[in-house]
Amino acid sequence: MITISNLTKYFDEICAVNQVSMEIPDGSMFGLLGTNGAGKTTLLRMLAGILEADSGEIRIDGEEDSFSPQCREKIFYLPDDPYYFPNASIQVMLDFYKKQYPELEMDAAVYMAQSLNLDQNRPIRTFSKGMKRQAFLILALCSQTKYLFCDEVFDGLDPIAAEIMKNLFRQEMKSRDFTILVASHKLRDLEDICGNIAILHKGGVVTAGDFKNRAEHVRKFQCVFPTEADLDSLRNHPAVLRFHEDARFITLITGGNPGEVRKALEEQNPIFLGEVPLSLEETFIAEMEGAGYDIRKVLQ
Ligand SMILES: Nc1ncnc2c1ncn2[C@@H]1O[C@H](COP(=O)(O)OP(=O)(O)OP(=O)(O)O)[C@@H](O)[C@H]1O
């Protein structure tokens, strides 16, 4: 398990990471979501033992020193622009990583490369952006580290390659003790793979948690009420996160107890009352707006 307590990092006067605290449970796929400059890369680099924090603490499996060799060998850090030797092929990089990560599974890497039509002997520099991404994801998965930290993991992947990668992630998680921390500025990249998501904004954590679970309490209702209905009582109802009126057609997004919300709506004798499913994105937006954030500044 990774425990982060009050982690802070400044670059001169810029506070890149500000008093961040969170826990990343073992066996989870944890998403770090935030706009450009939110502090995701800085946080990942500190966790990977590449950058020193100004204050605060990181504990990896209880170990205090995240720069120690014991911690480093448990972690594969995949930056958004990974380094490879000039003219190196996947095979050359596999040989290199094998020295760093003795558990690396060569056969699995070769099999994955073949499944993705990547020539393991061709120089990586001749690969497209998406192919390079696939190559490094294979290297990362096959290194058999306990932790994988990825920056902008699916950037440049076409939808089919992204789906294949998501499935490879899931398979690895099922087959061994594996925890993945993924940073992205796109909710869509994270929503179908990450159970837990933390949103970073200006270096701080705005909110974190299991949004799929929380989404079960957030509902979207569409209704039409008679003219005499008391709409103000609904607009000001404590469970109403969002109230949108378009002529007589009203859309509400609500938190709290769904039964109580429905009762309050029914008390106004609706001419029409329907419940529609909510995407994870809408759940986020409603929660963030409910907490007083301007969502357009926090998510892209
Ligand atoms: N080496 C550095 N020197 C000075 N400032 C830096 C450095 N690295 C990051 N910063 C600043 O720290 C803040 C956080 O940057 P960071 O790269 O962590 O954000 P990010 O969320 O990963 O952004 P992106 O999505 O664009 O990659 C930004 O204001 C950035 O300008």
Automatic annotation (TrEMBL):
Q: Where is the ABC transporter domain?
A: 2-227
Q: Name one Pfam family in it.
A: ABC_tran
Domain of life of the organism encoding this protein? Bacteria
One function term, GO molecular function aspect: ATP hydrolysis activity
- Which Gene3D superfamilies did the record assign? P-loop containing nucleotide triphosphate hydrolases
UniProt keywords (A-Z) are: ATP-binding, Nucleotide-binding, Transport
- Does the keyword Transport belong to this entry? yes
Q: What is this protein called?
A: ABC transporter ATP-binding protein
